[in-house]
Design goal:
The complex is a heterodimer of chains A (264) and B (380). Chain A is α/β, with parallel strands linked by helices and 264 residues long. Chain A has 6 helices and 9 strands. The radius of gyration of chain A is 18 Å and the shape is globular. Chain B has 380 residues and is α+β, with helices and mostly antiparallel strands. In chain B, α1 (7-19) crosses α4 (112-134) and α7 (242-278) crosses α8 (351-378). The longest helix of chain B is centred in the last third of the chain and has 37 residues, at 242-278. Classes of the chains: A alpha/beta (264), B alpha+beta (380). β9 of chain A pairs parallel with β10 of chain B, so a sheet runs across the interface.
Chain lengths: 264, 380
């Protein structure tokens, strides 16, 4: 059986996990949140008090989950925040490893209205490339996590000078497909963007059923450190593992369009 | 910060901080000028010396940019000035030590500040050696003479309790390059272990000289590999001297460091043994193998599992922690379990068995944790 390359990107399919000695850089992570009117669509899950929860509410919670967990893994990772309406602008541009800083940034994250119409992410790549150079100078790597909410509007960008300076992940929340929207096309456009731009393996998850706990689970997979990632397909096949007695080898995928296999 | 210094100062300061052999810190920055009070020209430099730090104020003057900065030493070192005014040893042109250090000043040369600080620090070490040599204590004189050939020793006169004088020695141990032993070592500076030895200065007609106080010291980064708190120092026998004490200590320490290095790969194999049961880790420490984090489920409940491995693993079992992805406290903090370290364990098991036993434990513990999370949420 071949030995897999557990610690390098893109390797490790189908063979034993290996943790090779290799440098692991601290991350600078930019959350870019789509604050278009569609972020106010309600999730299927209601809050603990029975009140409705919008996509934006669930996204904020998911980001806090991510930040808390990431800092528990390593307190030296840092976060900054940007928003996307018609285009991308900074919400909080100073990177911080302080949870309170994330909490206060999210507090001022509000949806725009009316609907933006377009979603130009050219500036996202520009500012990410700029920040990536600064991060590299400090021995860090840069990651962008784009959280997108529109079911009919594809993101556009002027083709950047592509240097693959940062990793990109996408979380896509959308309505059920119907005659008046095209979430599959939007999804495909997001996949293409990610592959065009991302330095290490980028991950993308879509959430069309409006379940908050599924959003949280996917955000947790995005915790995976880019320098230790394998392909998304393989990742979705091996995690999360169910903790049940006499663990069987189950396949529970929820990634690119594959329907989940069984009885869970 | 440095963007507020004029370029000629910030260039020299950056060069100093990036190239000085030890880690320097800046504590205070301020301006001496009434007119240009926004532009900075002064700072306090914190310099490692003899296992502690000394603080010097570096005083440039915006109104005289070509002049070398003044250096103001600590309040306990008034004599250092006098020492610097003395002629240097072996100096043919009989300049004072201070003049020698300040010569060749050029504010356009980025390296001059580093050269100045390095020279002054060397002079400071010579000054402390000179002061120690002046002390009238036979044992001390003997100790100094026998260890002076050891590379890298620094000494410092300090005041102990009751304002008595004490002499502190910072003795680097083991000339092994610890950094080289660690694959993919992330340490920028060589990690060294030191022995701090503090001798009280003997008072005349005092009874038998007391043993010196001994303490092992190391930079905090080394903790990822090896904890000096776990080392039991050999006892200092009556009438011993450092030349006798040090070799035993070094041999014992060398063995412990080598063992700590082999334990890295044992932790590595344990983390790898977790993967078949817990899935691929989201992140695992690839250099020291002290941590690994996994995502798991118990029914529809998804949660994170953190494994923390101490440098004493496998003697000390891993500490586990669970964190919900679905239950949150106030301020959006996802609910965590307590640190779990009380579960069946034997350091003699194979790593695959360790992994299986932990898995079995967590199958049950996950259910407890889920219940705890649900109850905590209801209480909101």
């Amino acid at each position: 059986m071949e030995r897999a390359e557990g610690a390098s990107s893109g390797g490790g399919e189908g063979a034993r996990y290996v943790l090779k000695p290799a440098p692991l850089n601290n991350e600078d992570i930019i959350f870019c949140v789509d604050v278009d009117a569609e972020s106010l669509v309600e999730m299927k899950t209601t809050g603990a008090d029975g009140k409705p929860v919008t996509r934006l509410d669930a996204i904020k919670q998911a980001i806090l989950l991510f930040v808390n967990a990431k800092l528990a893994i390593n307190p030296d990772h840092r976060f900054a925040f940007a928003t996307l309406s018609k285009s991308v602008s900074w919400l909080r541009k100073e990177f911080s490893s302080n949870v309170e800083s994330a909490i206060s940034a999210l507090r001022v994250l509000v949806a725009t209205s009316p609907p933006s119409g377009q979603a130009d992410i050219t500036n996202l790549f520009r500012l990410a490339a700029h920040e990536a150079k600064k991060s590299h100078a400090q021995d860090r790597i840069l990651r962008v996590i784009l959280i997108y909410c529109r079911s009919s509007v594809k993101p556009q960008f002027q083709s950047p000078v592509n240097q693959k300076l940062f990793t990109m992940d996408v979380m896509y929340l959308h309505d059920k497909p119907g005659p008046d929207n095209c979430p599959q096309e939007v999804y495909d456009a997001l996949v293409e963007t990610l592959e065009h731009v991302s330095e290490h393996e980028g991950y993308i998850y879509e959430n069309g059923k409006g379940l908050a706990r599924v959003l949280f689970r996917h955000m947790s997979v995005l915790l995976a450190h880019p320098q230790q990632r394998c392909s998304q397909e393989y990742m979705d096949a091996v995690i999360p593992k169910p903790l049940t007695k006499k663990a069987p080898i189950t396949e529970s995928g929820n990634g690119k369009g594959r329907s989940p296999v069984s009885s869970q | 910060m440095s963007s507020d210094f004029p370029p000629y100062i910030s260039t020299q300061l950056h060069y100093l901080l990036n190239h000085f052999p030890d880690k320097l810190k800046i504590e205070n920055v301020w301006s001496g000028s009434k007119h240009y009070s926004v532009t900075l020209d002064r700072f306090t430099l914190v310099i490692p010396y003899c296992l502690d730090t000394i603080k010097w104020d570096i005083i440039y003057n915006l109104e005289f940019p070509l002049a070398a900065p003044d250096v103001i030493f600590g309040p306990d070192d008034e004599d250092f000035h006098r020492f610097l005014m003395m002629p240097g040893e072996g100096d043919r042109d009989s300049r004072s030590r201070a003049e020698f250090a300040m010569s060749d000043w050029n504010n356009k040369d980025p390296t001059r500040l580093l050269a100045l600080i390095k020279e002054l620090r060397d002079q400071y070490a010579a000054y402390q050696r000179w002061r120690a040599g002046e002390i009238d204590d036979d044992r001390l004189k003997f100790e100094i003479s026998t260890i002076m050939t050891r590379e890298g020793i620094e000494m410092q006169i300090i005041s102990g309790a009751d304002k008595t004088e004490e002499v502190k020695f910072g003795v680097p141990l083991m000339h092994m390059n610890i950094n080289k032993l660690v694959s993919a070592c992330p340490w920028r500076h060589p990690q060294k272990i030191y022995l701090q030895v503090i001798y009280p200065v003997a008072r005349k007609y005092a009874s038998a000289p007391s043993a010196p106080r001994l303490k092992l010291m190391s930079p905090p980064e080394l903790k990822a590999l090896f904890s000096i708190d776990d080392v039991k120092l050999p006892s200092w026998l009556d009438g011993m001297c450092m030349a006798e004490y040090l070799p035993n200590l070094e041999e014992s320490l060398g063995k412990q460091v080598f063992e700590a290095v082999t334990l890295i790969d044992f932790r590595r194999s344990f983390i790898e043994a977790l993967a078949p049961l817990f899935g691929r880790p989201l992140e695992a420490d690839p250099v020291f193998c002290r941590k690994a984090t996994f995502l798991a489920t118990s029914g529809p409940f998804a949660f994170l599992v953190y494994f923390l491995l101490s440098t004493q693993f496998p003697k000390q079992q891993p500490v586990l922690m669970l964190q919900s992805t679905q239950h949150f406290q106030s301020q959006g903090v996802p609910i965590k379990s307590a640190l779990l370290s009380d579960y069946p364990w034997s350091p003699r098991w194979e790593v695959s068995q360790m992994a299986e036993r932990i898995f079995e434990f967590l199958v049950d513990e996950a259910l407890n944790f889920k219940r705890y999370c649900n109850e905590s949420q209801l209480q909101h």
